[in-house]
Design a protein that fits this description.
Radius of gyration: 22 Å
Largest sheet: 9 strands, mixed
Helix content: 25-40%
Oligomer: single chain
Structural class: alpha/beta
Strand content: 5-15%
Number of helices: 13
Shape: globular
Length: 407
């Protein structure tokens, strides 16, 4: 009986490891998530046990890593009752570096634990998942991880790309994650910009961020789209990009992402069969502004027209491509979340809040209302997830100040 069991175990392991799914973000268990906020109190220890079991197996028998083809993983790093990642958790990146046959990674980051600021989180290997054909990334994720994945894959073999509220934590020039104090002082948010000032990051700024001579502020992650736009995308059939509700961070992150979406649409127009573009709506957009203190209500009144302006800009990047370019295989395309242009843009109270908003409304030609019907109410609030609230080191603060004074 024992001999039979061992033989059966050896035969079954390759099949059992083909699909590894110790993740929770596809089951409504990731914070923040789409739906009721009661999930905030959910216990994730069961999923963490499954992850550690997998890590233990892969550490003990690294030769089994070749059998993993589909990976769904929510990065927890530690239990909420633990003081930090365990020794086994610290093997995560070593295990992931051996998963070279994974073709469909689906990754997300759980952000409500102190481990998010542990250096371990940002010590991923420089090369990950070289055989990817279908990629989905959700929520906050640091740029090193996104870069390692994107620069490892073969763009011409990528069939599906889904970016679901993917956000970048931002980086200081010294390599540390962005801190709130610096971001609040230096980020260029949309409320302070003028239409003539709006432009995506150029090649020079992207290179400076890469070399560490410029900051990168938190916001939507544009790197995957900007990177892919420079290659032939002959196999890309599915493009699904959903933004989280506007968070008021540096507007250039949004504009660079908008440009990236438009460029990928043009590059992959011969192969795309499904396209979904979604602008996340805060649920409060379509309800009365009645709760909170006076400052909160005043902030919300300023926030709404900013969302209208940014949604309008996004639509003006994407819609001309969908309307004017030829997509011979496109069977379905959805544009969601742009209804707030119609619902809020028609309210004079939302169009007369500050000179910058009036300039936006005069400069933008709002698109046809036929694409403004579908909702994309997103209960996820990115807030400052992934951004450290600790006080920056004086040397870091001085370095950032010198960069801005000299630029």
């Amino acid at each position: 009986m024992t001999l039979v069991s061992r033989t059966w175990h050896a035969l079954s392991i390759p099949y059992l490891l083909q699909n590894v799914e110790p993740g929770s973000h596809n089951h409504g268990q990731l914070v923040p998530f789409l739906g009721s906020m009661e999930i905030l109190e959910m216990d994730h220890s069961g999923i963490l046990i499954r992850q550690r079991t997998f890590l233990r197996l892969m550490t003990a028998k690294p030769e089994l890593a070749r059998h993993v083809h589909n990976l769904t993983w929510t990065f927890f790093w530690q239990d909420e009752n633990e003081k930090g990642p365990t020794a086994l958790d610290r093997e995560t990146w070593n295990v992931f570096s051996r998963l070279e046959n994974v073709t469909s990674p689906d990754l997300a980051q759980y952000t409500n634990v102190d481990a998010c600021h542990d250096p371990l989180v940002r010590q991923n290997p420089p090369r990950m998942f070289p055989r990817v054909t279908s990629l989905r990334l959700e929520g906050w994720m640091h740029r090193r991880l996104v870069t390692a994945i994107m620069t490892s894959i073969c763009p011409s073999k990528l069939r599906s790309l889904k970016l679901d509220g993917l956000n970048d934590e931002g980086l200081l020039p010294d390599g540390h994650s962005m801190v709130v104090q610096i971001e609040r002082q230096y980020a260029r948010d949309i409320s302070r910009a003028r239409p003539g000032d709006l432009s995506p990051f150029d090649d020079d700024m992207v290179q400076r961020q890469k070399l560490g001579s410029a900051c990168s502020f938190s916001g939507p992650t544009w790197y995957p789209l900007r990177y892919l736009a420079g290659f032939r995308l002959d196999s890309l059939s599915t493009l699904d990009v959903q933004l989280s509700p506007l968070s008021g961070r540096d507007d250039r992150n949004y504009l660079t992402l908008f440009q990236g979406v438009a460029d990928v649409l043009r590059t992959a127009r011969q192969s795309l069969t499904f396209v979904r573009i979604a602008f996340g709506e805060s649920p409060q957009h379509h309800g009365p502004i009645s709760s909170g203190c006076g400052n909160a209500r005043a902030g919300w009144v300023r926030y709404q027209p900013q969302c209208v302006a940014m949604a309008s800009i996004f639509s003006l990047y994407v819609l001309p491509v969908l309307c004017d370019e030829h997509f011979p295989r496109l069977a379905k395309h959805d544009c969601e979340g742009f209804r707030l242009i119609k619902d809020l843009g028609g309210d004079p109270r939302n169009l007369e809040r500050g000179d910058s908003i009036r300039e936006y409304q005069q400069a933008l030609l709002l698109p046809d209302v036929s694409i403004m019907a579908k909702a994309c109410v997103d209960y996820r609030w990115i807030g400052q997830h992934g951004i450290s609230d600790h006080h920056p080191h004086p040397e870091s603060l001085g370095q950032v100040t010198n960069i801005f004074l000299s630029s």
